[in-house]
Design a protein that fits this description.
Number of domains: 2
Structural class: alpha+beta
Order of helices and strands: EEEEEEEEEEHHEHHHHHHH
CATH superfamily of the largest domain: Regulatory protein AraC
Helix content: 40-55%
Number of strands: 11
CATH class of the largest domain: Mainly Beta
Radius of gyration: 20 Å
Low-confidence stretches: 6-10
């Protein structure tokens, strides 16, 4: 893998995976640990929360900036009384190191400079409005932001030429892993990734051996099991939180998959 210092090259190696804004107005916010082969930059716009990165827990709040390295297992949780809202940008093609050249698995910068949010708001606007040349403008914004981050925090940020390119199916899988609690829709996935339903389904099954909707339903059921064993939520509450149409439908799907009802599963495996 070839690595070059950020201030010596252009943004050619940076690849923007997505720009999202997360707004949470209730406590039923489910996130489970996941990892992906690209980095993420979070900026907390309001509220408080907790990031779990590997085995470490880090409290965050408004104006905090969080960097998550590629392949670092992580999740984020919102505080019950102060729901957390944030921007997140997924991107590949760079690494973050400290002064001793150690590659950081994550970085939290608290109480950030006042100009930091501009870059996230502007990237989000360019992305959602689909302005002309928005891809290149977002790259320019991110490159400038990384340079400021490097200068003000004594970091070494370098762009890198990946050995392999990220496939679209990697991004689709990541999208499902993050949005598992929603009701699965192949049509919505196709719109999100600008593909035909047939092509998306074919490519996903080719790479992962399972259709995207079956994978989505499998992930959702695994999280039902996790909630049954790790929480006191009722089956009706779990059904609502994971977007099943009713408790009876969840019970039907669960029993078809496991051979027993959710209530019996909880009774048999309660920790």
């Amino acid at each position: 893998m070839t690595v070059q210092n950020l201030d010596m090259i252009q943004q050619n190696n940076l690849e923007i995976m997505y720009v999202h804004r997360s707004e949470r107005n209730n406590s039923n916010w489910l996130h489970f640990k996941h990892a992906h082969p690209f980095a993420e930059l979070f900026y907390i716009t309001s509220g408080k929360g907790l990031f779990i990165i590997g085995e470490e827990e880090v409290e965050v709040s408004e104006t905090d900036l969080i960097y998550i390295a590629p392949n670092a297992e992580h999740t984020e949780l919102s505080k019950y009384d102060t729901p957390m809202e944030y921007f997140v940008i997924g991107l590949s093609g760079f690494t973050v190191k400290n002064k001793t050249h150690f590659t950081l698995p994550y970085l939290v910068i608290q109480d950030t400079k006042r100009e930091y949010p501009f870059y996230f708001y502007k990237c989000f606007e360019e992305h959602t409005q689909n302005y002309e040349h928005h891809d290149q403008i977002i790259k320019n914004l991110i490159s400038s932001f990384l340079l400021i981050l490097q200068r003000e925090n004594q970091l070494m940020i370098a762009t890198e030429i990946p050995e392999i390119n990220l496939k679209s199916t990697v991004l689709i899988k990541h999208y499902i892993d993050v949005n598992f609690k929603e009701d699965p829709s192949l049509e919505d996935l196709a719109k999100q990734f600008h593909m035909s339903k047939y092509y998306l389904s074919h490519q996903f099954k080719k790479d992962y051996g399972i259709s995207p909707i079956k994978y989505w339903n499998t992930i959702r059921l695994e999280n039902v099991k996790e909630l049954l064993l790790s929480s006191n939520f009722s089956i009706a509450e779990i059904s609502e939180m994971l977007s099943y149409t009713s408790q009876s439908y969840l019970t039907q799907v669960f029993k078809k998959s496991t051979g027993i009802s959710p209530a019996q599963y909880r009774k048999n495996h309660w920790r």
